[in-house]
Design goal:
By secondary structure, the protein is an all-alpha fold. The protein contains 20 helices and 2 strands. α1 (about 15-40) runs parallel beside α8 (about 155-165).
């Protein structure tokens, strides 16, 4: 992310160095993509068959169009539809024996009913266009997260670094709903930053409700939506939670009105379906960026079957540590009444979310770009990197380096390196919130401008 804003020795602006780094990342991403496209399907890189993750969504829409609403959460019924699609479009590739169920709430399935009315090839084209639009909107919103007065040369680093990130390549190849999630999350954070008047430490009530309402749109991924709503409410207050609850209620009503009984089937079958998927022998645990996946890969490797009880205990204990740490720092951020501390805690909570969830795929790590830009905005506003900021930057870079290596090295070494790097980044960011005194800045001139060139947040219009 565009974190550094100082000048390096010999007067070379860091923004220029970041542009060069982004160019190198883009080249590496292209190379990684080319290698991945030439790999055989059994290497589990997830991109050999472009866009086939759209199939479960298309299958759900097709079942609804055929009047089989009660079957969209039956993984075997979805698999039958996918099998026919596979035979038509990927006949030259062997089909996996695993399940590819529909795992989202009923209201989100309605989005794919019109798509299912098109031939699959045309539906893929429309879905790609939708994802491109979501990605464009997300990048524009993320750029607006940076403070007023940020030079364009730095502001345009946001989409450049997003477009050169490895999770973006994975999300493109899978054609999942990651870009929609990123657009919603970016809109939520932008509303959250505009809702607070830093001078009076007050939140705008209408904007706070609106922030929660937009965050509630993420409930199409229930676990992610719930955690984001709680994190926003932790800094903005109960009104944000009310806004999220209202959106969730509306989505629930729409889904139940259009697809009677589907909500109950979703709630009853979700845990069993996820268990069926994750307990198969060839499940890609190395691509799950969760603490559960870390412990399972370390001790149970790729063996199928239920997770060992000891592994579950290790997962719950480590997840409890992260949750407790976030809670303590969240309370400290709330009591401090400091806008910067609140924003940094919110960025930390977004980074830590994959760790405390039981299911989180690696392509969804693209959502961490929103946390990175939120953090970068605070660095821009204060005018330079502190000593602790430098460690946060190192942790971000470590994660960026690890992510392209994880799909292969994780499977070979049975170690989830993404989870290790993500935990390190979380703890580094948490340490900043715990710090009682500011570190000495390593620079004095932000973004190549004079120290007073950036407008303080409390002077910006809410």
């Amino acid at each position: 992310m565009s974190l550094s804003i100082a000048s390096r020795p010999y007067g070379v602006p860091v923004s220029r160095l970041l542009w060069k780094a982004a160019s190198v990342l883009l080249l590496l991403t292209i190379i990684a993509g080319a290698i991945g496209m030439t790999m055989p399907a059994d290497r589990k890189l997830g991109w050999t068959l472009f866009g086939n993750d759209l199939m479960p969504s298309y299958a759900a829409g097709q079942l609804i169009r055929e009047g089989q609403v009660d079957q969209i959460y039956n993984p075997y019924a979805v698999k039958r539809v996918i099998r026919s699609l596979w035979a038509e479009h990927y006949a030259q590739h062997p089909m996996s024996d695993g399940l590819a169920p529909w795992l989202n709430p009923p209201a989100f399935a309605l989005l794919f009913v019109p798509l299912a009315g098109l031939p699959y090839g045309q539906a893929m084209t429309v879905w790609i266009g939708f994802n491109v639009a979501c990605l464009t909107i997300a990048c524009l919103l993320l750029m607006k997260l940076l403070p007023t007065g940020t030079p364009r040369s730095v502001r345009w680093l946001v989409p450049l670094l997003v477009l050169t990130s490895f999770p973006l390549l994975q999300a493109i190849c899978h054609q999942q709903n990651t870009f929609l999630s990123l657009a919603i999350l970016a809109a939520t954070l932008l509303l959250a930053t505009r809702s607070r008047d830093a001078a009076t430490v007050r939140w705008s009530r209408p904007l706070t409700y609106a922030t929660g309402a937009v965050a509630g749109l993420l409930l199409f991924k229930p676990q992610l939506g719930a955690l984001v709503a709680i994190a926003i409410a932790a800094v903005a207050g109960y009104r944000a939670l009310i806004g999220a609850a209202l959106t969730g209620t509306v989505l629930l009503a729409i889904g139940e009105r259009a697809l009677p009984g589907a909500t109950w089937e979703f709630l009853l079958g979700l845990s069993d379906t996820v268990r069926l998927v994750q307990e198969r022998a060839d499940y890609h645990w190395q691509r799950q960026t969760t603490l559960l996946a870390f412990w399972r890969m370390l001790f149970q490797r790729d063996l199928g079957g239920p997770t060992f009880p000891a592994i579950k205990l290790l997962w719950l204990a480590s997840m409890g540590v992260i949750a407790f740490t976030l809670t303590r720092t969240g309370v400290a951020a709330w009591l401090s009444k400091d806008a910067t501390t609140s924003r940094r805690w919110l960025a930390t909570a977004i980074v830590a979310m994959p760790l405390v969830m039981p299911y989180y795929m690696d392509y969804d790590l693209l959502l961490l770009t929103a946390a990175g830009v939120l953090y970068a905005g605070d660095v821009v506003m204060k005018g330079g990197l502190t000593y602790s900021d430098r460690w946060v930057v190192r942790s971000w870079l470590t994660l960026a380096i690890v992510m392209p290596l994880e799909p292969v090295l994780g499977a070979i070494l049975s170690v989830n390196f993404n989870t290790i790097a993500l935990t390190m980044l979380t703890l580094t960011m948490v340490q900043q919130i715990y710090a009682k005194r500011a570190m000495t800045s390593v620079c004095s001139t932000p973004l190549g401008r004079s120290p007073g060139s950036l407008e303080p947040m409390h002077q910006r219009a809410a």
